[in-house]
Amino acid sequence: MSERRDRQGWIWGGLLVASLATAVVGLVDWLSSGDADPAPEPLALDQPGMPFGPSGEPPPGEPPLPEGFVPNLPAVPTLAPGARPERASAEGEGRLSDLAAEMRLVQEARGMIATEPAVALSLLDQHRARFPEGALREEREVYAIEALAALGRTDEVERRYLEFREDFPESSLTERLQRVVE
User: Fold this and answer.
1) Residue ranges per domain, the chain?
2) Which residue among 6, 16, 78, 112 is the one 20 to 30 A from 32 at the CA level?
3) Residue 109 CB partners (closer than 8 Å, separation 6+)
4) Average pLDDT value for residue range 33-62
5) pLDDT bucket at 180, cuts 50 / 70 / 90
6) pLDDT bucket at 6, cuts 50 / 70 / 90
7) Residues 128-177: pLDDT tens digits?
């Protein structure tokens, strides 16, 4: 029995040494290749879908933001000097993961409206079912209306547009949707 354990120990030891040697060789190769950390692509501010052009102005065809516009951001608490912020609660962490999931669905759908509006609409319907009162429901509805318009479903576009106006009467996105509906 002792001889068998010794043999197994040698086998495991040999595997460990081989694994470490492979890792070291790979690391040396990677570090010496010169492209270990390629520079990131510069952000093109004039590409479609970007909120502002390089000059800080909205892209052509988009209405300018109203004067004095301030985005609806959460308040940042003021901490006493030397105080440490409280750790997020499990409930707060759950809300953040929900928001991240919402953002992934809405962003993916937004990117598909022009090329695959049916897939985009399906993703937005998933968002609507999963997050009916989610933080991004206003954006979801805008993209859903745009996807419906791309599919030529004008009756649904008009119905959803009227619901949007009812649900978000003060929305800054109403002008954008008016162009879609016309």
Assistant:
1) 99-181
2) 16
3) 119, 120, 121, 123, 124, 127, 140, 143, 147
4) 56
5) confident
6) low
7) 999 999 888 999 999 999 999 999 999 999 999 999 999 999 999 999 88
Residue 37's SS3 state is coil
By CB neighbour count within 10 A (0-12 exposed, 13-18 middle, 19+ buried), where does 153 fall?
middle
Give me the pLDDT at residue 168, please.
92
CA separation, residue 157 to residues 23, 117, 179, 181 (Å)? 57, 13, 12, 7
Task: Give the Cα separation of 103 and 29 in Å (integer).
Answer: 38
d(CA 101, CA 114): 22
50 versus 120: which is more confidently predicted?
120
Residue 107 CB-density burial (10 A; 0-12 exposed, 13-18 middle, 19+ buried): middle
Residue pair 126/105 in contact (Cβ under 8 Å)? The answer is yes
**Under the phi-then-psi rule, with left for phi > 0, alpha for psi from -120 to 50, and beta for the rest, what region is 81?**
beta
Could you give the residue ranges of the DSSP H alpha helices within the chain? Answer: 2-32, 90-112, 117-130, 137-150, 154-167, 174-181
Q: Tokens 């800080």: give the residue.
A: 56
- 143/161 Cα distance (integer angstroms): 11
